[in-house]
Amino acid sequence: MKTTGIIRRIDDLGRIVVPKELRKTLRIKNGDSLEIFVDNEDIILKKYSPMESIEEAAIRYVESFNQVIKHTVIVTDKDKVIAASGILKKKYLGKNITEFTERGIERRDSFVERQKKTFSFVEGVEDFGYYSFSSIISDGDTIGSVIIISVESPILESEEKMAVILSKLLSGNFSDD
Description:
By secondary structure, the protein is an alpha+beta fold. 28% of the residues lie in helices and 33% in strands. It has helices spanning 20-25, 55-69, 89-92, 99-106, 157-172, and strands at 34-39, 42-47, 72-76, 81-85, 110-122, 125-138, 141-150. A hairpin with a 2-residue loop joins strand 6 (125-138) and strand 7 (141-150). The longest helix is centred in the C-terminal third of the chain and has 16 residues, at 157-172.
């Protein structure tokens, strides 16, 4: 375990403040949930991602969708790519998302780029091509996105709809029905 040298007091209501520098470094924003773990006498806080609970399903879905549409398919939570398939899989899988992707998720966007252009959905990766983006929404909260990328041919309307369908399939994994 890495020490930060930061010490905080617990207030009368049992709260502690996570320092701004740590929140920024760990991409923790106001309203984010933290999961609490106990390891012997250590308390461990981890940023909570509901998408992690369906990561295996997301992997199966992106593989299946890629076999049908032959484009790269990625699924993100609000921080990183959790599932990817297609020719760009290794470039995207596990990478942190960019502010562009984060804003798209927060705005609940669903759109397609039919003009070939440069884009960056994850940090340190820039591509030139076409894409479709659909936010994943569960119980009124945004939790991630589905992105279909093609570096060769424009995204067809049917493929754009596939991104929306996949986002709805993934959000359906959280319903109580």
